Amino acid sequence: MTTIDWNALAGTFDQEPDHGLADPLVRRAWADRLRQWLPPHPSDVLDLGCGTGSLSLLAAEQGHRVTGVDLSPGMVARARAKLAGTGAEIIEGTADRPPVGERRFDVVLARHVVWLLPDFEAVLRHWASLLRPGGRLVLVEGVWGGDGLPAERLTEALAPLAERIHHEPLSQDPALWGKAVDDERYALVACTAAPRRHTEVIDVHLVLRRGDEVLLARRANTGYGDGLWNGPSGHVEDGEDVRAAMVREAAEEIGVELAPGDLRAALVMQHRGPGGRPRTGWFFEADHEAAGEPYNREPDKCSEIAWHRLDALPGDMVAYCRAGLEAYRAGERFVVHWHEDGDSVAYDADGPDRAVVLPVSRGGR
């Protein structure tokens, strides 16, 4: 990576005017643009190469929490004076690697900085790493007399880092520059992906009763818990309620015909398998008489089915199912079963008990 002589540049920047923002009309035009580019709610904004702090001040006046960075001691002093009383922090440091430690921001703002960076793609990746999920890069750039960075080139570099990129031409607005211009000037607002809402797989489990016995099926050829006993079970499909899913899975796996009214909610358990993601299981109780005689309808996934006494369950069971049936037998209704990564999928009578019973509300009584 080519290095930049930031000290030489800092000396140059000390002599530059305030990019025209001393003019009230220009200042108002930039304030209007920032209001569109920055989030509508108070956010943490990192202004890189902030100069005398003109854009930082506009952002602070719009309610944002601003951190400005500039290498020039003269610029830093002027910015600190300009932003006194706003709560903004102005730090002396380079724009390519701002000295902000582990802090993260909602916006990284840079005006007329990227074109100076020899390896700007690497710097952009670092800037993106300073953003929180859903954050944005706001970059004002252009091409002046052959110098600068075309929008197409910067957009190409931002594409792997952003979920969407908004290109806003600025040349046609003389209010931003205090005069008409005919070169390429633009802003790019590159928004990173927002944090995804947490989702979980929903399982359904059938506790099919024949007196004191429950029906279990031995898994085979599935890649998970093969050779272990497990209750008839499956996943809820998109748009399906848990009762409909249980009715469908019972028919598919053991050939019994149940109606939603035949099912009684027995237990809800949130579970995490070893090294896996959380999921939530609904255990439903049904009577053998209502269901009819079960049979192994999926021999490619199940080697056998058999009845087992609820108070004498087999040892070679899937730990998740075993914990659910033991909680059901004890009359519990809500359980969290959280494996550690080194745990076995199989029930281990000598291993730690991962089931945590949740107390049931008394309904305000």
Protein topology:
Layout: H1 6-13, H2 24-37, E1 44-48, H3 54-61, E2 65-70, H4 73-82, E3 89-92, E4 105-111, H5 120-129, E5 131-144, E6 147-148, H6 151-158, E7 164-169, E8 184-191, E9 201-210, E10 213-219, E11 229-230, E12 233-235, H7 242-254, E13 264-272, E14 278-287, H8 288-291, E15 302-309, H9 319-329, E16 334-338, E17 355-357
Parallel strand pairs: 1-2, 1-4, 2-3, 4-5, 9-14, 13-16
Antiparallel strand pairs: 5-6, 5-8, 7-8, 9-10, 9-12, 10-11, 10-15, 13-14, 16-17
Helix pairs in contact: 2-3
Describe this structure in words.
With 365 residues, this protein is α/β, with parallel strands linked by helices. The protein folds into two domains: 6-191, Rossmann fold (3-Layer(aba) Sandwich), CATH 3.40.50.150; 201-357, Nucleoside Triphosphate Pyrophosphohydrolase (Alpha-Beta Complex), CATH 3.90.79.10. The chain is 24% helix and 30% strand. The protein is built from nine helices and 17 strands. The protein has helices at 6-13, 24-37, 54-61, 73-82, 120-129, 151-158, 242-254, 288-291, 319-329; strands at 44-48, 65-70, 89-92, 105-111, 131-144, 147-148, 164-169, 184-191, 201-210, 213-219, 229-230, 233-235, 264-272, 278-287, 302-309, 334-338, 355-357. The strands form two sheets. Strands 9, 10, 11, 12, 13, 14, 15, 16 and 17 form a nine-stranded mixed beta sheet that branches. Helix 2 (24-37) packs across helix 3. The protein starts with 5 loop residues before the first helix and ends in an 8-residue tail after the last strand. Mean pLDDT is 91; it is low at 1-18.
